Prior knowledge:
β6 (177-179), α9 (187-199) and β7 (202-207) form a beta-alpha-beta unit. The protein has a seven-stranded parallel sheet. Strands 20, 21, 22, 23, 24, 25 and 26 form a seven-stranded mixed sheet that branches. It is elongated, with a radius of gyration of 34 Å. By secondary structure, the protein is of the alpha/beta class. It has 34 helices and 26 strands. It binds iron/sulfur cluster. The site of iron/sulfur cluster has 12 residues, from α26 and α32.
Amino acid sequence: MRLLTGPAGSGKTYTVLQEFRQALRQSNRDARLLVPTTTMARFVRNLLAREGFVFPAEQVSTFSRFLEPFAPDVRAVSEPLLYLIVEQAAAEIARPEFARVAGMAGFSAALARTINEFSSAGCSAERLERHLPDTPLGEAFLAVYRAVERELAARGLCLRGERLERVGAAIKSPGAIWMDGFYSITDPELAIVTELARKAPMTVTLATAGVTQPARERLLRAGFREERLAYACPPPSATLVEAASIERECDEIARRIVEHATAGRDFRDMGIIVRAPEVYEGPLRAALERFGVPARFYFERPLLEVASAAYVAAAVEAALSGWDHERSLVWLRTAPNGTGAPLDWFDFEIRRNLPGRGLDPLFTYAAGNPNLLWLLDSAKTLDGWREGLATAAEWAERMDGAAGLYYAPRPREGATHEEALAWREQAKGLAAFRAAMGEAVACFLPAARIGLAEFWRAASAALRLSVVRVDDLRRNVVNVLTAYEARQWRLPVVFVCGLVEKQFPGYQTQNPFFPDAARRPLQQAGIRLRTTADMDEEEAFLFDSAVSRAAESLVLSYPKADSRGEQNLRSLLLDRLAPLAVECARTAIPRRAPAAAPRRNSPVSSPSMLERLAGKHAKLKPSALEFFVQCPFRFFASYTLRLKPVPPRPGERLDFAVKGTLMHQAVAEWSQSREDIDALFARLFEEAVRTHRIVPGHRTESARRAMLRDLRRFTADTQWPGGFDSSVELDFEAEIEPGLFLRGRIDRLDRTPDGRAYIIDYKYSRKDYSRNELHLQGPLYLLAAKHAFGLEPGGMFYCKLRDEVRYSGWSDDQAPLAGRPITAEWLENAAAVTRETAASIRAGRVEPAPADTDVCRYCDYRDVCRIESIQPAALSEGGRS
Ligand code: SF4
């Protein structure tokens, strides 16, 4: 009975492996090496196999797989089924304490998690009753726990703690056992370990850390003899990298991996350790793929994130909703590529007509498109299932058929390994979908006839709790591991990313049923439940373990800002290390795109395309020029490609643009007719409601009132004198210098008797446009008035309508309102900017280069311009370039 202890990297795993190797050399088929996870077991098996050892797989396994043969009749409840039983029990018991949250998925999941935690700690409902602390939800929790245990017993199932107890009674030791990589061993597990140790030689390793102390003390009490290992590995070279964003951080990791690979290092000698896979998986996959780095991700993926399962589940939910069009959109958006259906166009059509329900209107929108019609037709089977009853097994069988709705695109020739993995994931997703339906069947009495909605409630819970893992058997790949999985690995080069507060260390919340205050008395009663302080200690332990995985090079990294541009707080765990050399992430260019700039953003260069560009933009609008000055890509997407943003949701249809148009219409009409503004606006608003399908509601009414208030204020305002020769909504075309044409519409042009122009541009916004140097409208309108109508510049004013009436702009000495002086230099400067801008547009300049990065926050094209990979520094700290 040996207990090997020592800090991370002190040689515990090395010692265990050496001893286990010796057992294998002696052909000891009874020797067992037990590790905490399947991945670790596979890693050790592969390591030993590469060294030439041949042995049955069960000699290296997880603890729970090792226990399986000892009590084959003891069946532990699966996680999805436990959730469903908990949900049912909570509903039946109907405790008033849970009345407001019962039925919520998150509530049942938290209950199930806590029941599992108690059971794993060896605390059955009966034991909990004896030590129940004084806590508001304790009694209610206990009542559900008891009901769950009763239900499990009736089904011949048990929770983890009970299973371990029953296995312990039947355990036999096959031979010498080594247990490595565990840091917390629960009491029921300890009982088994002690029992095993009595029967055969046993070695357990534990890291020296606060989090392992309870297990250490118990093992020593059980008679284990402690051996402290003190080997200290030479420390690796360590660097801390700061990146502007998570994407830049992942690019930097990929760039460094490529550098190592180019210098001759195998990919398999490198690893990335991640604490928050849900945050890092997407950006890491994208960066590694772009840089051509083969990688294996040791992550489980929630089943409902796998496209095939998500598609079938979304189709059933859309059918259950009576083909509510919002739900149908969710289903259609998950349709696999390869159906050939023009989903964007169809999606926009549905959004424009929301709210809606039923398959028939969808068929109408899809008219004439055979692929869309086929897609809708394939879902008709589900339509008939809404009514009618069947047994759970029959529903599961029907769902099996529904899984066939997923149309898997044919693999293309020359597909990459990543694509092959993606297809295998889809196949696994459908298999897991069918397995989840099987879990749902177990929730109902075999002969009970139920409706689809009832069956689906259980089925969707099972789907939610299921995960998929796709095996990737390539050898020479970078290993991407969670901090838990990485505990037994040791690699020459290791990257530990995401070192920001709330990620690493993760954010710990108190258990809603048994907060820390209720856990302490339970701990005193010998029930080992973790408090948030224990969880914090575990985070520190995982960090220490992660940074000790590198043999030669350790790169720690974190993004300085999150996806919203908010500053991240660097992980306080970094203070556990000696001061590190800090480097900034470099602008990285993917290996697959070695050109100086990514192709996607290179200027348009084909002569025919340039000719078309010149033709399309022969006459430019001042607002379009401003778009270009703000960002060439924004102009390209908006004015050249004319990309349309997603139609707003019904509640958001009365948006900034619609309000602006409405206000302009009202001001223009009123300026000409002087009609009663209330009546005029009521008419225009009604028309806008019809045209834009604006839905009534509090938001709409409050916006309508605000606009009317602003219009009343404007019509009563006397700052701008009457009496001029006035035109509103005046279209113009002007050649402001040879070959440079402008076109557009002036909101209001007042002519003075001596041939001068006063221009007013109405703005329904809170901004002061006259202070923004990027705005060209002011001087360009005056130049247009001169060249189109022969009027000298007299004044140009922005008239702010929102919340107040305020004029600001430029004027000469005689203008009725004061403004900044109109100078020849100001006008010439605007003409020069226009000249240069027009030349750049016609030269095919399209790169994302925002003059003001604040605009990127609400720009419609931020998902396609990839500014972060091109100008990372531009967006850091939300600053302006
Ligand atoms: S998000 Fe920024 S960089 Fe991208 S197109 Fe819009 S303005 Fe340009």
